[in-house]
Amino acid sequence: MQMSRDELIGAYRRMATIRQFEMRLHDEIKSGEIAGFTHLYCGQEAAAVGVCDHLDDDDYIVSTHRGHGHCIAKGCDVKGMMKEIYGRRDGLCKGRGGSMHIADLSKGMLGANGIVGAGAPQAVGAALSAKLDRKGKVAIAFSGDGACNQGTTFEAMNMAVVLKVPAIFVFENNHYSEHTGVDYAVGTNRDIASRAEAFGMKAWRANGCDYFDTYSTMRELLDHVRGGGGPAAIELDTERFYGHFEGDPQRYRGPGELDRLWAERDCLKNFRARVGEGGLLDLAELDRVDAEVSQLIDEATSEARAAPPPDPAHVAEDVYVEY
Amino acid sequence: MQMSRDELIGAYRRMATIRQFEMRLHDEIKSGEIAGFTHLYCGQEAAAVGVCDHLDDDDYIVSTHRGHGHCIAKGCDVKGMMKEIYGRRDGLCKGRGGSMHIADLSKGMLGANGIVGAGAPQAVGAALSAKLDRKGKVAIAFSGDGACNQGTTFEAMNMAVVLKVPAIFVFENNHYSEHTGVDYAVGTNRDIASRAEAFGMKAWRANGCDYFDTYSTMRELLDHVRGGGGPAAIELDTERFYGHFEGDPQRYRGPGELDRLWAERDCLKNFRARVGEGGLLDLAELDRVDAEVSQLIDEATSEARAAPPPDPAHVAEDVYVEY
Amino acid sequence: MAVMNIREAITRTLAAEMERDESIIVLGEDVVGGAGTAGGQEAIGGIWGTTPGLFAKFGPDRVIDTPISESAIVGAAAGAALAGKRPVAELMFADFVGVSLDQLWNQMGKFRYMFGGKTRCPAVVRLIYGAGMNAAAQHSQSVYAMMTAMPGLKTVLPTTPADAKGLLTEALRGDDPVMFFEHKALYGVKGEVPDGDHRQRFGEARMVREGGDVTIVTCGRMVSFSEKACDKLNADGIGVDLIDLRTTSPLDEEAILDSVEQTGRLVVVDESPPRCSLASDIASIVAAKAFSSLKAPPQMVTGPHAPIPFARELERAWVPSPGKIENAVRQALAYR
Amino acid sequence: MAVMNIREAITRTLAAEMERDESIIVLGEDVVGGAGTAGGQEAIGGIWGTTPGLFAKFGPDRVIDTPISESAIVGAAAGAALAGKRPVAELMFADFVGVSLDQLWNQMGKFRYMFGGKTRCPAVVRLIYGAGMNAAAQHSQSVYAMMTAMPGLKTVLPTTPADAKGLLTEALRGDDPVMFFEHKALYGVKGEVPDGDHRQRFGEARMVREGGDVTIVTCGRMVSFSEKACDKLNADGIGVDLIDLRTTSPLDEEAILDSVEQTGRLVVVDESPPRCSLASDIASIVAAKAFSSLKAPPQMVTGPHAPIPFARELERAWVPSPGKIENAVRQALAYR
Ligand SMILES: Cc1ncc(C[n+]2csc(CCOP(=O)(O)OP(=O)(O)O)c2C)c(N)n1
Ligand SMILES: Cc1ncc(C[n+]2csc(CCOP(=O)(O)OP(=O)(O)O)c2C)c(N)n1
Ligand SMILES: [Mg+2]
Ligand SMILES: [Mg+2]
């Protein structure tokens, strides 16, 4: 897997942007200024970025309730996102959607979704559209280990195989759906990939805390799909570093679990170690990226804080194109 | 597989009852007296009977739109069923349900169902109840090859595994869902059993046109489930001898297909051949059974024809136990 | 103008629009028929006979049979619509909104709003609905009230071949998700259909009769039942304004209120159980907005608060009948 | 009488009834919490904190965490109820009826009727509903109208701790499927709760205030919003009959009609979009059955025909406010 310096720095920048975006939210939420439910993606950055680094704006993704990482990885405007999460008039969705409903069609980002499992059939539809367009585009459904038990996800997998569309099911197995462990909820002993295989598609597995593994496995997968091999699935073994939502007491964690995760399963740390050992990059460059990202997030936050709220008079607009 | 004379005759009687019931309906429907949609079970008799012969009234089954065979195999009153299908006041469901909604809780028959896939979760619930009762009872969900693509069926399989309940998924693969072939609609090359396995349960396969194969495979399966092995699945390779519903032009059939099915895949013929060859029974005994069944179906039909219709004044009764 | 029935009007409109607009695709269970069988495809052309010939003409990429997975059918339509296509998804029975509601209600109906007005989801969902075939409790329901209640969706119910063409064309050229309801007992209804381009704007009710004594507001199969009632009433010199809503969302409030302002008497006929129904919706709007014109309590003719039964005698008792409609009109008139 | 909040009343009632009746089981996502984790079970006791302690007390057979599969959760409840149990299934957000509607509507709601009155399906489905937490379009909806419309289901909405106990007890002792709606913004509401056995019959509305000038009919969170409006109105000498429906199916028509016959003026307040809503239902019933008593057009205070937005300012504008309720009452009074 050969990557250029720029590609490496870009990948790191996207992961770092997600990380800092989420950690900032983690802090800001304590202030009480951010309303609603916020599900942080922190810990899973390598998954979103390792997948989306293969895509361009014409490829589609559908996302989940834990969607900030997917949005950033797919190129959504960070400041617009922050304003959205703050519920501001100029947010990416005018403050109507909030954290769970960010979309940007111009980036091929078809939407985060508050309904677990709802995105997968939509990805099949987007993939159907891509197939008709014959431009080699794909549609990706991000799902969690919990979402993989929802009927819609199963139906979507079967339908993708039947319709032979370039749909890709990315299962981010972070071992929890809310407070429930994957060992319990997925009847097949947490093996999501083989369940996908049984639907008649090829499935891969990768370490979702390792950018390089995710990225290179996705390359293989995409060669298969773009080569006309039909839909595919990948199970990414990853970690969620914070609670299910902000405010979660996380009593389901084992003793020392979070410390271990931060120590051993931090994709940013792993990335740094890898590029450092391999002499691929001067780590100082990554420090510079961190500083730039930090500046961006600072700006995004202060601009969002200062931004005007939506006008209540517009509450019933944009329901229809025409009514 | 040792079976007594009585057991053999009983099994034949139940299959013949289904066969004659359905063939009579096939004729009667032409008269226009029977309303609604009727889906005939003819051809699949060995499946229902081979499964239900292991059950008693305390075991549960949930059925489908093609439910007459399951009802008869589980012991529902044939005359009550016929009246129900004729829409009569004294029908098993007072003429409110009709062909697609026959139930008899006293027989452990929790209901036919017009919604494809709806029964499977209900079987999980009945199995949960059976598990709590600790009497070794099981709950069986009959599903078709088409129903096995419905999200509810998948959810039910996973949940049965997670909750470790004595639920059994019987997939009657008759190769068609309405006008669509299973080779098309089930993405895994018509292999339903292995898909069930991928949900984490043990799965069997049997020839659903062969009573003996179905019966003996079910014995194995039930030993596993009743022995605490958790839920299980079985795929029965079977055939539907008539159209999807009465009136179906069946243009999806290959040339000579139906003739071949009647010649080679008739479970009643197969049963006779087997008991004849093995010298297990004198075939004259089966002829006698046929005659008795014929008499029963004659009576059921003429009684149903003569029976009084429901009183329209009662249209809104029995919605609630108390309101 | 050609004469054809509603079934044919739908098939021809689909074909004409698919010809005109490459982005239109059709998907659903057995909309082609015969996939994966020895008999070969296009075995049926839709269980209701509304999509024959489309597969032969437009091929497997655009006319697509699906597994029995209604959530995925509607969800795929939603996703394809976001991604630039105009999918027409068929729910063989409207009752199957039970297994696909989320994709209709929380997904395609809400995308545009949730995403700040920046997306379009021009999906058409065809729902075959209604009683009259003794298909019993799970295959006979009229779920248009449920859909009407849902912001973001449009709800359309043609009752003539001309409207079937006009409303379907409008649906396929608009940019919002449309619930296109086809009554299974109306497919055979014949009538003249305008040639060439024919669009029927949504939110524009059809004045079926103008009589001036009482206003009947209704939709779907109840339009023809109401016409039968009107015939009886006419014979007694009673004139009815009969309004076929055509679309319940958007709603032509003006047509309703204008008529009630003249007649002062309202009968709403709705093939549905009574509670939170379209009947209650229309009656409440009239009570709120034409209160001073009302000379009698609004009459709501609906089915009972009960599922739809199977037996002929029971189904007939369940569905509002011409006789009940006639009675309601007489009661509205008798009130002083 | 002990003082507690609605959350506690629900937990204690569940515990007391489970103690009394072995056939009651509880199932849903994270109703225990922590299954299959290193932290161990009973990590949370329900995402809303309504089921803590039940697992410890009644064990894994009766308090059951499920995968994220709402159709299977509700379907399993339906099947277990047919098979003799009394399941209490939790839909963490009422909006998830979108992914489980069939099992509610076409299955548990119809069994008894379809099967000729020979079965019972005593399942209780707890639906956590309502706006007020900025949870946006897919986690804030009040779907009680949809459920009220469905024959075979009962729809229950407690607004006080005493009613939470009384109505839940009644649900658990009855033999019909009950949709038990818990407003997420009301869990903390405190009040006195009768000790011992306390059943609140369904179909018996609660007269919150008696004022005589105008009738407000409402339910859920809108009861307290209406009380705020009443306070303002009282200050101006305006007396309101405020009716908390408690259950919308069955409906206490008598209480509503009795009051309107006195006041002649009706305001319905409904946390829902307007079309085919409970507001339209009540207004139409009153218009039809108390027409001669009505002195003013019924006022319906609802949200707009739009999904529920996220931002605080927008959600607040969407939900009917005490101010809007007050206005509606004044308009009702102003009408001559
Ligand atoms: C249909 C539905 N059921 C339940 C929920 C509540 N819920 C939100 S997130 C979540 C857990 C999802 O787990 P997983 O898919 O593993 O994603 P993760 O949270 O781990 O990213 C649940 C149960 C929901 N939003 N939608
Ligand atoms: C949810 C739902 N979708 C579609 C239908 C229409 N329908 C009835 S039977 C059927 C085919 C079922 O096929 P299968 O499960 O193989 O059963 P079979 O008819 O072969 O017994 C279909 C599509 C339905 N009744 N319910
Ligand atoms: Mg997870
Ligand atoms: Mg089949």
CATH superfamily of the largest domain in chain C: Thiamin diphosphate (ThDP)-binding fold, Pyr/PP domains
> What's the Cα radius of gyration of chain A?
19 Å
Mean pLDDT of chain A: 97
Q: How many strands appear in the DSSP assignment of chain C?
A: 14
- CATH topology tier name of the largest domain in chain C: Rossmann fold
User: What overall form of chain A do the CA principal axes indicate?
Assistant: globular
What is the class of chain A in the CATH system?
Alpha Beta
Calculate the mean pLDDT score of chain C and round it.
98
The domain tally of chain C reads 2
Q: For the record, give the distance between the C-alpha atoms at the N and C termini of chain C, rounded to a whole number.
A: 46 Å
Uncertain stretches of 5 or more adjacent residues of chain C: none
EC number (chains C, D): 1.2.4.1
GO molecular function, one term (chains C, D): pyruvate dehydrogenase (acetyl-transferring) activity
Protein name (chains C, D): Pyruvate dehydrogenase E1 component beta subunit
Pfam families (chains C, D): Transket_pyr, Transketolase_C
